[in-house]
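F.,

This is the one I mentioned.
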């Protein structure tokens, strides 16, 4: 047994799941392979079996302690959260210490349960920085790096921790937007713990991660009335979410970004008219002097996580291209049911080589820019022969430990290629320029693709594709200057 009750119960539940359905590894493969029903089935299995799987765990404890533990297990939020963390273990990889769920010890002497450790956090005088989330599964992967960053920042600059980073599901806020429950970092033990707060805690600043734009809008508005510093306020994030607005802003600011044409959704009703708009954009992007094989990106203008983005590849003559992609107009029309349609010239001819014998794959570089400074990042590698690199579109994250030693190859050649200091400086500088378009957003993720044109001046073009006001993938993030894991040090200076 561990010294944490919730972990003991979770492990017991996982044993039950494995005995019934197969190993966690096998289950994950099935779920990620598209068997979405499996997770539902496992969830229902837990609903009907959790008590019978929990009780045998306690047999060796004294009877009085078992009684208290049973009382704790009757707390519905305690039990349901343990069930959820068991499920999230099935679903995804854990990239941080395990989350310990603490029961509500109000009116119960924690010493009564001697076998387990229940932390007591002392936050007098602390600045409470809330990370508000909507999607809880595996959220600790995203918030843990920020908790550590804030802690390291405070210790290096102020001797004592001044900020407490607390992650809260939106349903854990009371009517005055105070926290009634939170996921916190216990500095004494280096644990991540989820605690019900006996007295609700007021928030000093708030950050939105793992939320839909709709929830972001609603709560950003609520927090505005409380004069709470926000990372990032919704109106500013909204601009970052609008790809065409960013494109226009970047063009004015001389940020290199691929050509784009916006087709308003109300102009997409008639297929012939839509097809003509595609043809016009295509002819604007590609000419007779374009490479033999070109790529057209068709995506929702305010999409996120690669949803709805498709890359179409073919010759630079529209009639042949259209013939090859019989479904391209259908894809535009499908997007137009919920969003404006954005067409973009596909860019990027450098391919990433995971190792010398691997096939080169397309990739994006992701930089986290805080207050105008690119501090950290990672690389998103596409699947072989795939154009889209974002993890939501099938890509995977590669950590950026030593960017100048990464191996690339120029598409269509076998010549190995490495970035030098000057290239890197240009790329990082371009990420910082891109963030200037949304200065009110103090923490953004900027995606860049690289194009190499031998003999041209400059030969290296970093193309800015996208800016994300709720950047994810933070568990893989490394500081650009040290290669150490982490996201931001600069953000914490903005809070107060
Ligand atoms: N113009 C482009 N050229 C090359 N690749 C692109 C282009 N636009 C998008 N992509 C690929 O598609 C992915 C998703 O597109 P993006 O604009 O970032 O949408 P989302 O906001 O959904 O992440 C990018 O990460 C990149 O791999
Ligand atoms: Mg993106």
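My design for it:
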């Amino acid at each position: 047994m561990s010294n944490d009750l919730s972990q003991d119960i979770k492990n017991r539940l996982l044993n039950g799941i494995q005995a019934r359905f197969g190993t966690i590894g096998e289950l994950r493969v099935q779920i990620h392979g598209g068997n979405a029903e499996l997770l539902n089935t496992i969830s229902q299995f837990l609903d009907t079996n959790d008590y019978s799987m929990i009780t045998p765990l306690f047999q060796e404890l004294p009877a009085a302690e078992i009684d208290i533990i049973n009382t704790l297990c009757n707390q519905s939020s305690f039990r349901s959260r343990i069930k959820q963390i068991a499920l999230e273990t099935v679903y995804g990889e854990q990239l941080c210490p395990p989350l310990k769920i603490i029961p509500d010890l109000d009116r119960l002497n924690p010493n009564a349960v001697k076998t387990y450790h229940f932390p007591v956090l002392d936050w007098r005088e602390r600045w409470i920085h809330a990370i508000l989330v909507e999607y809880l599964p595996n959220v600790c992967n995203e918030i843990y790096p920020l908790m550590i960053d804030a802690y390291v920042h405070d210790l290096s600059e102020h001797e004592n921790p001044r900020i407490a980073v607390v992650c809260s599901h939106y349903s854990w806020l009371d009517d005055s937007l105070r926290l009634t429950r939170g996921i916190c970092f216990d500095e004494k033990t280096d644990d991540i713990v989820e605690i019900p707060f006996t007295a609700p805690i007021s928030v000093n600043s708030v950050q939105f991660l793992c939320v839909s734009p709709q929830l972001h809008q609603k709560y950003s508005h609520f927090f505005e009335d409380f004069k709470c510093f926000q990372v990032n306020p919704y109106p500013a994030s909204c601009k970052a979410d609008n790809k065409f607005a960013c494109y226009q802003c970047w063009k004015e600011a001389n940020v290199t970004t691929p050509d784009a044409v916006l087709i308003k959704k109300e102009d997409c009703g008639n297929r012939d008219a839509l097809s003509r708009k595609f043809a016009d954009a295509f002819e604007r992007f590609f000419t007779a002097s374009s490479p033999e094989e070109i790529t057209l990106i068709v995506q929702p203008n305010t999409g996120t996580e690669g949803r709805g983005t498709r890359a179409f590849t073919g010759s630079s003559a529209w009639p042949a291209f259209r013939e090859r992609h019989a479904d391209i107009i259908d894809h535009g029309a499908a997007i137009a049911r919920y969003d404006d349609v954005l067409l973009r010239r596909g860019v990027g001819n450098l391919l990433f080589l995971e190792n010398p014998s691997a096939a080169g794959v397309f990739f994006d570089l992701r930089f986290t820019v805080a207050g105008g400074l690119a501090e950290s990042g990672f690389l998103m590698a596409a699947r072989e022969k795939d154009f889209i690199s974002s993890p939501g579109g099938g890509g995977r994250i590669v950590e950026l430990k030593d960017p100048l030693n990464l191996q690339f190859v120029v598409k269509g050649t076998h010549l190995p290629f490495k970035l030098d200091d000057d290239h890197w400086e240009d790329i990082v500088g371009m990420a910082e320029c891109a963030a200037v378009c949304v200065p009110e957003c103090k923490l953004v993720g900027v995606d860049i693709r690289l194009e190499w044109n031998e003999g041209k001046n400059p030969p290296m073009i970093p193309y800015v594709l996208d800016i994300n006001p709720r950047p994810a993938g933070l568990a893989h993030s490394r500081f650009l200057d040290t290669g150490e894991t982490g996201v931001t040090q600069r953000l914490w200076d903005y809070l107060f």
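The chain has four domains: 5-94, 127-231, 235-256+347-496, 259-344.

Talk soon.
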